[in-house]
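Researcher: I'd like a candidate sequence for this fold, 82 residues long. If you have to choose between options at a position, lean toward the conservative one.
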C-alpha cells in the first residue's frame, strides 16, 4: 500500500490508475499539511457468479393454448377488420 498526497495524486492520476488496474496496487490519499487520510484507491474486483441452468424449472406454467389467437384480442389490436 502506497500513500500519496492529493497534489501528487492529481498530477500523476493516469500512472496511479495504471498501477491500480494493472499491478493491483492500493493507494491511500492524504490531504493537507497534517497528511489526513481521506480516501483509499483499491483495485476493483468484479464478482463473477456462475449461472445455474434450470433454476426456475417447474415454477412457471405455460398453458397449451399459449400461442393460439383470440378474436377479442385481435379486435383490440387490429380493429374489427375481417
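Model: Candidate sequence:
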Amino acid at each position: 500500500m502506497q500513500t500519496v498526497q492529493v497534489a501528487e495524486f492529481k498530477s500523476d492520476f493516469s500512472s496511479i490508475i495504471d498501477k491500480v488496474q494493472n499491478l493491483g496496487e492500493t493507494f491511500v490519499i492524504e490531504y493537507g499539511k497534517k497528511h489526513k487520510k481521506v480516501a483509499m484507491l483499491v483495485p476493483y474486483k468484479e464478482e463473477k457468479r456462475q449461472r445455474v441452468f434450470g433454476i426456475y424449472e417447474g415454477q412457471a406454467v405455460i398453458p397449451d393454448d399459449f400461442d393460439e389467437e383470440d378474436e377479442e384480442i385481435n379486435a383490440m389490436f387490429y380493429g374489427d377488420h375481417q
